[in-house]
Amino acid sequence: MPRGWLLLLCAFLFVWEPLRFAGDLSGSIGTLAMRGTPGVVELAAHAAIAIGSAAAAWGLWSRNPRAPMLASIAVAASAMATIQSLYWTYLPGNAVPGEALPLSIAAIAHAAGWIAYLRKSRRVRIDYG
User: Fold this and answer.
1) Which residue from 20, 19, 39, 38 is spatially nearest to 29, judged by alpha carbons?
2) I need a surface site. Which of 3, 7, 112, 128 has the fewest CB within 10 A?
3) Mean pLDDT, 10 residues at a time, over the chain (129 residues)?
4) pLDDT at residue 83 in the model
């Protein structure tokens, strides 16, 4: 079982991403026909990111040797979905005008921090090496 920062990353990937997708789905399911094909494609992409994130979390939890790479991809995809949702979306959103740039910078910094941790951490190299 992961400890410390890896446990926090597992929680982020296994809880936050699927919950964000569930919020997207529940907020748009009633109006999906009106949103058309772009809305369905966007929702499907967010579902794929949520599934990939949960798989990465499970890989980290079970100490799969390829899990750090999958987690890096999942964190980067999460950041891309956040940025995409801020600038171009067919789904409902809650971003206040003027918030897009600071939130984008925060999403990129968050992903970069986790990716750097996964690549440089001695614990990750020992546990998944």
Assistant:
1) 39
2) 3
3) 87 94 91 90 96 96 94 97 91 84 96 96 85
4) 95
CB-based contact 68:124 (threshold 8 Å): yes
CA neighbor of 2 nearest in space, from 57, 55, 76: 57
Predicted structure pTM score: 0.90
Q: What Rg, from alpha-carbon coordinates, does the chain have?
A: 16
User: What element of type H or E holds 63?
Assistant: none
State the Cα–Cα distance between residues 46 and 14, nearest whole angstrom.
14
Does residue 107 contact residue 79 with C-beta atoms inside 8 Å? Answer: yes
